[in-house]
Amino acid sequence: MMAKGTFETHDWTQGEPYADHDGVTITPVTLGKTFHGDLTGSGVVHMTMATTPVETSRSYVAVERVTGTLAGRTGGFLLQHSAFSDRGEQSLRVTVVADSGTGDLTGLRGEMTIHVDESGAHSYVFDWVCG
Q1: Taking Cα atoms as reference points, which of 18, 19, 43 lies closest to residue 112?
Q2: Torsional class of 41: left (φ above 0), alpha (ψ -120 to 50), beta (otherwise)
Q3: How far apart are CA 18 and CA 38, in angstroms?
Q4: pLDDT for 86-109, tens place per residue?
Q5: Which strand (E) or helix (H) includes residue 42?
Q6: Which helix or strand (DSSP H or E) is residue 82 part of?
Q7: How far apart are CA 51 and CA 21, in angstroms?
Q8: Number of H-type helices and E-type strands within the chain
Q9: Which of 18, 111, 11, 26 lies closest to 61, judged by CA?
Q10: Residue 128 pLDDT exceeds 90
C-alpha cells in the first residue's frame, strides 16, 4: 500500500560531539516529528550526525520510534535512517525495522521516501505492507 502526507520536525536537541578532530565531528541529536496525512502520529528520532569542513559533505544514521495510525491501523514501529551527502550529491534510505511493529501494525514492512521542498516543507511517501 502507499501512504502519503507531510510532517514537521521540532525539539531539535544537539548534544556535545562524541569526537571532533580537525573539523570532522560526530554528534548525537534527538528531535521530534508530527506526521499528517495517511500516517498520523508522532516520531522521536535518535540520530548520530557526522559533519566535515565541507558543508555539503555530511551523513547521519538514526532510529526513529513512530506511534500513531496508518490507514486505520493503530500502533507503533521503528524506522532506520541512513543518509549522506557527498558534496551535495545526496542519498537517503528510510526502512521499517523488521518485526518492530506493535498493535495493529504488527508485521509491518516498508520503505519511506522523504522530500524537502525549497521552502523547507517536509513530505513523505511510505510504501508498506502489514501482516
Answers
A1: 43
A2: left
A3: 37
A4: 998 889 999 999 999 999 999 999
A5: strand 39-51
A6: strand 73-86
A7: 11
A8: 0, 10
A9: 26
A10: yes
